[in-house]
Amino acid sequence: MLRITGYTDRWTVAGGEEVRLCLSSSAETVHWQILRHLGPIEGPSHWIERCRPVAGLSGRIANPGEREIVAGSFFETDISVHEQGSVYELSFAVFPTLIQGPSQIIAQLVFEFGEITLLAGASGEIAFQTASGARVSCNDVRLQERRWQRLEFVYDRTMGSAEVTCIGAFTSSARAALRNIPTTGRYLVGLRLAGDGSRGCFDGKIEGPQLRVGDDGQWKEIGQWNFGLHGEEPFVVPNVCGGRPGFLRNTPTRAVTSSAYDGRVCSFLDAPEMYNAVWFHRDDLGDAGWPVSETIRLPDLGSGAYSIVVSETEQVEWAKRESFDALPLFVRPSRDSRKPVALVLPTFSYRAYANNTFAEDADPRIFQKKRSTASKPLYDYAIAQNLLSLYSLHRDGSGVCLSTLLRPQVTIRADFDSQLQGFPHQFSADLAILGWLEGEGVDYDILTDELLHEQGDELLHYGVVLTGSHPEYSSGKILDAYDDYVRSGGHLMYLGGNGFYWAVGQHSRHPELLEVRRSEGTRTWTCGIGERRQQLDGADGGLWRSLGRPPNSTFGIGFCAHGFSGDGRYMINPDAELPVALPRTKAVIKDLAKGEFGVAGLELDRYAPEFGSPVDSIVIASTSNMPAGYLPTVEEFGGLDDLIVDAYGVLASKVRGDIVMRPTAAGGYVFSVGSIRWTSGLRSEHDDYSVRALTSAVLGDFLDLSANGRRH
């Protein structure tokens, strides 16, 4: 397992800016340096052979400390006025989603010198815990999983008694009272739900908490916090009584249905009263909160992909992966850069996959290339710290829809070798593109999804723009940027598969967060009914195809099939006729017509006019013979009647990947390969699959075409 790791406050930076480095290590001294990547890392020696140290960017940190991940979301608020009273009444609705294991804190009334806590035990029984730690169970009051129940919790400070009532639609009401509870303090100063102030330990929804104070039969409302109201700050909850707002800590899930939901509306923006709930999880994480170990001011670096290497030893032991870590850093170009090519690294997809550890439990009958790799220490750390990806499930079985940069993202590393698939994936795979550009002697800039999301088409002033190998996650602003670029005559090379598939949400005040709501499509989990809207931006989540923006319309192809049993090849379409404006590409295609070529695998895209592929697109080649185990995506089926007649034939006919050249009205071209595994062919020294030959020919033609255009 990793003995040293960390994270930075952001991934995309410019020369002259500062990067804050947060580390965890038990070593007395940690050494750091910044390396620029010049190619893929396929073994320990490549850290030296295919990277270049940045002069003057190294140092040492004394005793950074060993840090832990403190997870769990909760709600807390300070009481606006120290209301003195003898009786406090807290009421709210609750929908537990996992009642088992250790006790869960449901609510805490916090006084000057202690608190009184309402807990749920392993069988759902309610218990009180006093400031002294004494605990008494109320076995007559039990919560039920996945049922809305209303709790009324009354604490009489003067009498030293507490009472709880549970009212449920599917359970009879029950009440329990306790006497002789020690007085915890004179003034009520705060309220917490679902946690103890440092972590959350409750799984389930809580709806609309209300708090009032009474004395001599007179009551005063202190707080009524409406979880259905959303303001400029997404984790601040207004107090409709006019007192202090409440705060949602560690990014619980908002925009979820409450007990009032009746199915007539599917937007929390249109009916906040039906979404007056928050879903808390004991494994939520918004910010690991580690202290800053070092602040690094970057010089005027050239645009590129870098890693901040942190090590227990001054001379990094590259063969001992547990002894060092390498945190990604992407340096954006200067605003006056005039390089001919830009490679857009799909960092939103990196963030979605970060800490994906499915390899440990994956069925080897499905994932036939599953194996142990040199990345095992990375997996071991993520599992030990319960770091989750946007493919993971919370402990209660609900999907993880929020991902944060402010934590270790240990599977996004330059040397990452997927144990699930048996080959590099995401960042480590995209370094093959970077290495190919270096080998071709082409000047290029590195862009990221964050930059496109923030700045759009004004950033794409390049003659040729390349995508990464798996740009699966995209915002509407990113799609706009590519659309505008293509419409204005740019030349685009989509060098991957399953691209621009899922919509993502972001919030300008929390750029560290990324949100996905999976409501259809090929997925690992499904969001709740009425909960496909993204809490960060209010937009509908799901597939871009379902949202009316299929990638086919821009890139000529869209995701259609996937498999984990190996790679296939392409065959040239004999009817494909390329324009004379692409002489290099035409010559290579003529040579490739003699047999199979390329690398088609993992996930494939096809030409589909029914989903928006322009009819003037030229299908250069299609997959010939994919290994058994590949299946069409769920959304490829408009109905099931065909399967009844000939299931195997229908399934086989829908497994196809296409390489497409699409001319645009503005005089540009879009070249799309439709395979995640295509760029692995760029690693072949002797170009065994002719991937480099075809990709280089297309790039050469595009550079020639753009030489006199406005974008060069």
Give your account of this protein's structure.
- Among the domains are: 4-69 and 290-331, Macroglobulin (MG2) domain (Immunoglobulin-like, Sandwich), CATH 2.60.40.1930; 74-280, Sandwich (Jelly Rolls), CATH 2.60.120.200; 549-712, no CATH class.
- It is of the alpha+beta class and 712 residues long.
- The chain is globular.
- α5 (449-455) packs across α6 and α8 packs antiparallel against α10.
- It is built from ten helices and 38 strands.
CATH top level label of the domain at 74-280: Mainly Beta
- Total beta-strand segments: 38
Content of β-strand? 25-35%
> Uncertain segments of ≥5 residues (pLDDT<50)?
none
Shape, per Cα inertia axes: globular
Please give the share of residues in helix: 10-25%
Briefly say what this structure is.
13% of the residues lie in helices and 33% in strands. It is an alpha+beta fold. Strands 24, 26, 27, 29, 33, 34, 35, 36, 37 and 38 form a 10-stranded mixed beta sheet that branches. An 8-stranded antiparallel beta sheet has the order 11-10-9-8-15-6-19-18, with no helix packed on it. Strands 7, 12, 13, 14, 16, 17 and 20 form a 7-stranded antiparallel beta sheet that branches.
